[in-house]
Amino acid sequence: MDTRLPIPDIPRVGRSPEILTFGCRLNAYESQVMRELASSGNDDLVIVNTCTVTNAAERQARQAIRRTRRERPGARIVVTGCAAQISPHRFAAMPEVDQVIGNHEKMQTESWAPDADRTTRVRVGSIDDVREAAAHLIAGFETHTRAFVQVQNGCDHRCTFCIIPYGRGPSRSVAPEHVVDQVRLLAEAGVGEVVLSGVDLTAYGEDLPARPLLGSLVRRLLREVPHLPRLRLSSVDPVEIDDDLWTALEHEPRLMPHLHLSLQAGDDVVLKRMKRRHLRDDARAVVERARRVRPDIVFGADLIAGFPTETEEMFAQTLMLVEELDLVYLHVFPYSPRPETPAARMPQLAMTERKVRAARLRAVGARAQRQLLETKIGTVQEVLMEVGDVGRTRDFACVRIEGGAPAGAFLQASVHAVDDDTLIGRPAARATPISPAEDGSTGSTRTKS
Ligand code: SF4
Fold first, then answer.
1. pTM for the model
2. Are 320 and 283 in contact (CB under 8 A)?
3. Is 304 contained in some domain?
4. Ligand 1 centre and the CA of 428: distance in Å?
5. How do residues 328-372 score in pLDDT, each as one tens digit?
6. What residues have CB less than 8 Å from 364, skipping those under 6 apart?
7. For the chain, what is the domain count?
8. Can you tell me which atom of ligand 1 is nearest the CA of 155?
9. Which of 164, 270, 277, 341 to mutate to test ligand 1, by most ligand atoms within 8 A of the CB atom?
10. Which domain covers residue 78, as residue numbers?
11. I need a surface site. Which of 97, 301, 337, 352 has the fewest CB within 10 A?
């Protein structure tokens, strides 16, 4: 059965809704879907797309709701996202809120139609019953240069600190032919880079007939959308990289040399108490193998500082592993107890200690990032321009281009300095992105000094 969906023709009547997006790339993608679905007959609409990964994320959403009501007294405020999915009545109890919609409901066309049900205050169904990944074709992405494409949703794991599965339900994948249509549409719209996103991205395809795993999806995309300049992966579980993905990493220059690992910690006792599927040695082996097959690869990692029962010695293990593996783009969270999760019932470290450890981890990451950036002085880097005078290299380094360049432009930038966490460069030449023929090139060359 051809599950391909018709190319959307988005009528631009009236003002698109204001959307406040919190959290991850999935929420960013889903906000784009809602922006297109609610583009007519919703002039007064404000959608708050919440996150629940930390207490702080929920607090920020509440503050934004109160501020919006003050600034737009007549607006219709609809709250959705993971925090709304898990605690709908807490948001419905806020006088500022008009309606609470669940994570599945927010992706339904009828939820945003001009004649949609606006009277039922809470429209949040059980996310555990959802088996289909919502398949929408978005026509573009607000940044027009880099687009997040959701290919997988939900999670079947139960890491002891994590509340996400309760907000997003079981793991489910978007059919590969639909992903190809989506990526082709974005590439034709001039998007220079697509980031494949999911809650548990490396679980992609496990629920589909013939189990087309993430690696085969990546290779199919690059084969069937030859005009897509760059493909990037959001985050991967270190021990769930499949063979096709290893092959793509080695042989596909349009697959960016950048892996963001869902590492969380670097101590085996902590990893076991987190119920993660990898240990220190697994992470080390994955990084070493990736560097063998793709020498220009750079790593980021998600890390939790101050997990319950983590001793100073255990934390030192994490620090040492981050340094040893030279992980540069660190997303560090001080542990935040989430309701109903097993870790929330474990003996907790003081919040001050969690924050101190998070700062120490970030400092290690910042040092490694600085060292990486300094190696790029005197080189020419391929840069995809994003907003204003800022763009990104193939390995995700941020670059400020003197004199700026149009958003979406690819250029060769001659790097001559580093300012904090940003490279400083000037255009060396307009570039066409690395083509498949230029196998083995790193997208950077050293300028003749
Ligand atoms: S893999 Fe673990 S951390 Fe990631 S979403 Fe699933 S339960 Fe949460």
1. 0.89
2. no
3. yes
4. 43
5. 999 999 999 998 899 999 999 999 999 999 999 999 999 999 999
6. 319, 322, 323, 330
7. 3
8. 6
9. 164
10. 2-125
11. 352
